[in-house]
Amino acid sequence: MKKNVKWLMSVILCTVLFCAVFNIAAFAEDTAETGTLNLISFNVSGLPIIGTFQGDARSSGNKKSAVIGEYINGLGLDIVGVQEDFNYHKGLAGKMTAYPYKTVHSGGVPGGDGLNIFSKRGIYNVERVEWDVSYGVLYDGTDRLAPKGFVYSVAELADGVYIDLYVLHANAGTTIGSIEARADNYRQLAEHISALEYDRPIIMLGDFNSILGRDRGDALYENLLAPAGLTDVWAEMFNDGNCEYDGGSGWNPTYGERVDRVLYKNGGGVAFTPETFEYIMMADENGKTHTDHMAALASLSYTVTDPPENTEELITEEPIGVFEMFTKQFKAVFKTLFLIFTNLHELYYLISGT
């Protein structure tokens, strides 16, 4: 009899403990915050003169940028990262009415970096960083004629939950000098990430000017993805997560790759899961394009569980004064003229095509 009572009590106790554990797990699952983050990286071809011929619509200036802005504004996205937003920012930003939070425009060519963020969520602690290494003044991307680099910010994902957000434009061109500069761009980004003080998830949008399935020494995987622990959404969804191109063996992506990319890293109590990814080419009703890039459009679901309390001071970006902008552009013009004068030999390569 006593044995039966002990056995019955043991069964009851185990049942109670099991239910308690189950209820705790269910409670934790119920209290985890979930949501979806819709993003785009878009090179808006806002260069003066040259931008007119990037795309076949042959439109230019604020008229062209306004058409692009209206298009992006209608996509219903949460965060937009743009590149080549140089001289016609007014037209673009004027149509981006769905985005109450924007980075302060850094100016047109040659003083601005062409990078901006438009967000439906707060953005703070904005930092603009120029590349340590760039290549080409009069040819092969002419990257040294603008302070290309990346813009970093802290963006609010949910109430009290923050991410580190990057938008970048890597060096262009296909010569050895450009390839080496681009590889160094990725190294610089990885070092910036490793120096971050707070444990937060990361979103990175940009025109990387690199394709993983093209073995020419860009070192996107070796210098950035691997050391920084970043996941490429395209690779995750269409290439079995494989980012290491080995000359073609076993490389069979199910969707074509472009140079614009979306990367992410989990952390700080936030886990991202890629849901959709596609490249889109903006075209008007006549099928005419306004840029020479396919934009990278991604949707990431996220789960927030027990994020650390934010202890960093969050500072909104101050606008650039008229005198400060004039001084910045004045210095940039003289720097550009000096670069052109001291690199006239590049005209030979430009004319000869070698």
Beta-strand residue percentage = 15-25%
Low-pLDDT runs:
5-29
Quickly count the helices.
Answer: 8
Instruction: Report, as a whole number of angstroms, the end-to-end distance.
Output: 97 Å
Most strands sheet: 6 strands, mixed
Structural class: alpha+beta
Instruction: Name the overall outline.
Output: globular
Rounded to an integer, what's the Rg over CA atoms? 24 Å
DSSP strand count: 12
N-to-C series of helices and strands: HEHEHEEEEEHEHEHEEEHH
Mean pLDDT: 89
Helicity range = 25-40%
Task: Walk me through what this model shows.
- The chain is built from 8 helices and 12 strands.
- The chain has helices at residues 2-31, 61-73, 89-95, 176-194, 220-228, 233-238, 322-342, 346-352, and strands at 33-43, 79-83, 101-102, 116-119, 123-130, 149-158, 161-169, 202-207, 231-232, 260-265, 270-280, 295-304.
- The strands form 2 sheets. It has a 6-stranded mixed sheet with strand order 3-4-2-1-12-11. Strands 5-6-7-8-10-9 form a 6-stranded mixed sheet.
- A hairpin with a 2-residue loop joins strand 6 (149-158) and strand 7.
- The model is unreliable at 5-29 (pLDDT under 50).
